[in-house]
Amino acid sequence: MKPKKLVISAFGPYADRMELDFERLGGGGLYLITGDTGAGKTTIFDAITFALYGEASGEVRKGEMFRSKYAKDSAETFVELVFSYQGKTYQVRRSPEYMAPKKRGTGQTLRKAEAQLIYPDERQPVTKAKDVTAAVEQLLGLSYDQFTQIAMIAQGDFQKLLLAGTTQRGEIFRQLFHTGLYQQIQMKLKDASIARYKEYDEMRRSIAQYLDGVKTETASWQEAEEFDELKKIKFEGKLERSLELLKQFLEYGEAQEKELREKEDSLNQDIRKSEEAQNLVAQKRNLELKKKKAEKDLEELTPLLQLAVEVAEKYKDADHRCEELGIRIREKEEKLKKYQELEKLKKELETIEGKLETVSEKKEKDISEEQLLQKKDEEEKKRLSILADAGEELQKYKFEYDKLDSEKRSYDSCLLTEEEIKKEQKQIDGWQEEIIRKETQQKEELEQQKKDKALLDSAELELQKAETKKTEGLRKKKELEGLIALVKEFQGAYNATKEQQEKYKISIEKVQKQREVYQKLFQSFLDAQAGLLAQELKEGCPCPVCGSFEHPRPGILPKGQVVDQEILDREKQKLDRLENDANTQSVEAGKRKERQKTLWHQIQREAQELLHETEWKKLIPLLKEKQDQCEKQLADSEEEIRIAIERKKKKNETETWIEKLETEIVQLQEEKNQCDRKQAGLQTRDVENKKQQQITAEEIRKLIQKSLVSGNGEVTDNTAAGFERQIQDMLSCLSEKVQGKEKEAKQKQDLEKLIIEREKTLKELGRVINEAAQDIVRLETERKNKAQKVDELNEEIGEGGKESLEQEIKTQRKLYEELKESSRRAQQKLQEIRAEKERITAVVKNFEEQKKEIGEVDEDALREQYSRFREEKTQLSEKRKALFSVQKGNEEIYHKVQVRQTEMTAAEKEYVWMKNLSDTANGKLNGKAKIELETYIQMAYFDRILRRANLRLMTMSSGQYELKRQEQSKNQKEKAGLDLNVIDHYNGTERSVKTLSGGESFQASLSLALGLSDEIQACAGGIRLDSMFVDEGFGSLDEESLEQALKALTSLADGKRLVGIISHVSELKERIENKIIVTKKCGGDGVGSSIKIQ
């Protein structure tokens, strides 16, 4: 980028329109910008930067300061820059936001910021401020920060980069070379390392927690003591040894469990033997008791046995007596059966006699009924012969009636159809009138709806506009809310910066006071040292300081306390602490200032677009006012949307209504056509109906003439009513004839059916009478047989009654049962007593034998031995339970730790790997310089910058100085890698750049800035800017150094690049041919500055 023309109007100290033609300076080389202090030399650089990026070249001047205080109210503030880039010419014009007089009335109004970029081709100009800045950045390939570092070395920025430490220089490089990505990598690696450590530490603590629960009761005291020591150090690094000890504890425990089991098994055998011995004693004692009881039972059983034998003897012949009783009972039972048979025969005889009487009576009744039916049958057959021709005559009359009735219905149908046609015709006429009326009404309504629709056609467009307006309002509201939050954040940053600056000011005051104290003490110390030396001086002896043999004015020892080295060192340390604190406060203030600046730039960009106001104290009321306006606008938009929606809804309803009306009109036309078609159909039906009516009337006349009941066979009355009456009379006569013949036919049919049914009844009665005669013969025979058997049984039974016989049988049977039961019980009792005696005798004998087998036993000794065994077993059980609990707990811990150990080993390995990687990236490796990954990347940039810078510094310093990156940090605890030293080739030493003099610092700063400019251009894709501006700094150079600096800048220009220098140094005015002279006016010609090229 090379400027060709710059136009400044009411900008900074320039009250009027000023035009600066850079083409008059030539295509390349140096030019000097000189003039009065405060005339506006630096403003030229500000104007170029403002035109391109909307910001000043340095941090001191802000956008709100650009409006000239000397300009007339009518003068417009703007900057216009014409520049060339890659052979093409562009024009950018920009004006800041400022207060200007109202065009109408009094007072001032806010004039918003404006910007425009004009391309050399047919592309449309860019107009919005942000869009112009973005377009310039895209065109040049440089941001504002990069441009100010490459193309402009602003006033006051020379030593910023030169004297910065690793931290400050790293922040500068992060912004210029975008190395923040590597810082993010560092933080992610650090976070990942912490996360891995937490996982590992959690597993380690979990294992330690498990191992804390290990019990050492099974271990030897040495191993238990060793494990307790491991517990105290939380098993840190001793996990393997802990597991080995735990495994040994488990093995010892298993051995102890085995030993206890063997002891317990042996003891159980002893207990069983003791229990068996005690059981034998108890058995012997029990046998003795049982034997005594058995012997007693045997004695009591002897008299019972004697009594049972006597009772059994009484019933010895009971069986014989029972047999005799059984025979007598059976004889009586046989006789009782004959009584029962006799009673049965008598009952059967009575039944037969009853049946015989009933059958005889029924037979006589049936014979009488048969005779009566035969008489009625003969009478009905005679009557049937009289009604023989009734059916044939009925058919004739019925046929004639049906034929005439059918023709009459046809005739009546024609008459009815004629009436219906008349009614339908009348109905159609009414429909046609209604359709015409509705059609006229619908057409009028349709025209009105179409007019209403025409008025509502713009509703949709109005809705779109209202919604767009609402969307814009919401967007603006969101921007305002964001800007309000930003201003509040800036306000907080502003207050924090002021607070920090106050702290810094207080720290500086403390440093100055302490420095004064230290200087006084230091001077007192020197005076005291001189006084002490003077006390030792002797005439003729050389002074140890100056070597003189004469001492005209020896030093005098100060009165009071003499300042020694300890006091001086203590005050120096206090001064160093205060200076460090002041530096810290300065850095913190710088950070907060930088944050405030970043926020302010963001506010400027956003506020300039929204409110055209960049003074933050004025922003909050303006923002609230704008917010209220925005809320009102949104409310208005909502109302407009509601109205538009209602209008759109009404339009849609109107369109629907129009469609409905058009459809209804079409339907009415169709209905009208249908009425026409129906009317034509009715006329046709009417003609056909009248024709059919005539045919039917003629047919009826013929039927009347041929009728069986007609008088003369002629129709005497030809009128319609008479014709109808004659037809009806004929039908009535035929109907009477038909009804009469139907009665006769019905009577004939009923008689035929009745005769048939009666003949069937007579036949059935004959059959029943024959069967009754047969039954009478059979029943009479049975009665005689039964009477004979009754007589025979009466003779066989003889005298006596059935009741007395039954009583005898009952008495004898009871006697039989009692005798038999008593005999059975006596025998059973005898057998039971004998069996019990044998059993008791055997038990007594068995008890004797068992007592002999048991022998003699000491019961007290057995009980004492058993108690001792039980107590030992209880103690063993308690030991086994305790040991089992210890073993089970230790086994669970061992298995859990084994599982967790595998996981922890993997986690530990991953953590160590991640920690090493994080420590390497974050510069925390023990024993090595604190160089972070981002710093390492920045070191590569820094080395390239230094190589470029040293090409110029070696020239400017005549080969004396060379910049070098400090390899080793003085303090291993501080960040390193970007600190800067200078090599003095005259004495071969390497020292800090802070030791350079003012002129040397300017040479080093200028070289470093030019090297940085070259590196940024190279990193920006090989972009080359054909212009550069250097503001101040040459006043500290001597003649030779100035000559070397000019040579370096001349070589930088190389005949193609314009290099502008701002300076008051008179030698530069003489050596640089092209000059831009800035003059400050404050006399009669007006107030403000002017520009002249020389």
Main β-sheet, spatial strand arrangement: 9-13-14-3-15-16
Helix residue percentage: over 70%
Global geometry:
flat
pLDDT < 50 runs, ≥5 residues: none
- How many helices in DSSP terms? 20
Q: Would you tell me the overall average pLDDT?
A: 77
Report how far apart the termini are.
Answer: 23 Å
Strand runs, count: 16
Beta-strand percent range? 5-15%
How big is the Rg?
72 Å
Q: Which class of secondary structure composition applies to the elements?
A: alpha/beta
The oligomeric state of the chains shown is single chain
Instruction: Outline the biggest β-sheet.
Output: 6 strands, mixed
Question: How would you characterize this protein structure?
Answer:
With 1094 residues, the protein is an alpha/beta fold. The protein has helices at residues 41-53, 129-140, 144-150, 158-162, 166-177, 180-212, 221-232, 239-314, 318-386, 390-456, 459-535, 565-610, 616-705, 720-797, 802-854, 859-921, 933-956, 998-1019, 1039-1053, 1066-1071; strands spanning 2-11, 14-21, 29-35, 78-85, 88-95, 98-101, 108-111, 114-118, 152-153, 961-965, 980-984, 989-992, 1027-1031, 1058-1062, 1074-1083, 1086-1093. It starts with a strand and ends with a strand. The radius of gyration is 72 Å and the shape is flat. 71% of the residues lie in helices and 9% in strands. The relative contact order is 0.14. Helix 10 (390-456) crosses helix 14 (720-797). The strands form 4 sheets. The protein has a 6-stranded mixed sheet. The protein contains 20 helices and 16 strands.
